[in-house]
Hints:
The chain is an all-beta fold. The chain has strands spanning about 5, 10, 20-25, 35-40, 45-50, 60, 70-75, 80-85, 90-100, 115-120. It is globular and about 40 Å long. The N and C termini lie far apart (about 40 Å).
Amino acid sequence: xVQLVESGGGLxxxxxSLRLSCAASGFTFRYYxxxxxxxxxxxxxxxxxxxxGGAGSxxxxxxxxxxxxxxxxNAKNTLYLQMNSLKPDDxxxxxxxxxxxxxxxxxxxxxxxxxxxxxx
Length: 120
C-alpha cells in the first residue's frame, strides 16, 4: 500500500522559509517521479514542482521558480521542498504525489497534506 506522509508545514511570515518533507513507503521510491502540489482555500489543486526518480530532472511552476527547490533522498525514501521568500499567495495545503510518469498530471496518489500559512 502506497503511503505518503507530509510534514514541515506551519505559520511563517512573508519572506520566511520552510522545508517540507514527504516520507514515502509501500513502493520502490527511486523508480518514480514525484511532485508537490498545493491547494489554496477555495481553489483547485495547483502543480508546484516535479522531480524524476534519479533526481536528474526537475521542473517548477512559474509562480515558485527561483524560490522553491525540490529534492529527494532515495536512500531515505523522502521527498523535500525547500521554500524560500514565501509570499501570502503561497498559503495552501501542500501535498506530495507519486506519479506514473515524469509528465503525468494524475495526482490521485498523494498524502494527507501539510498546511502552510504565510501571514504577518
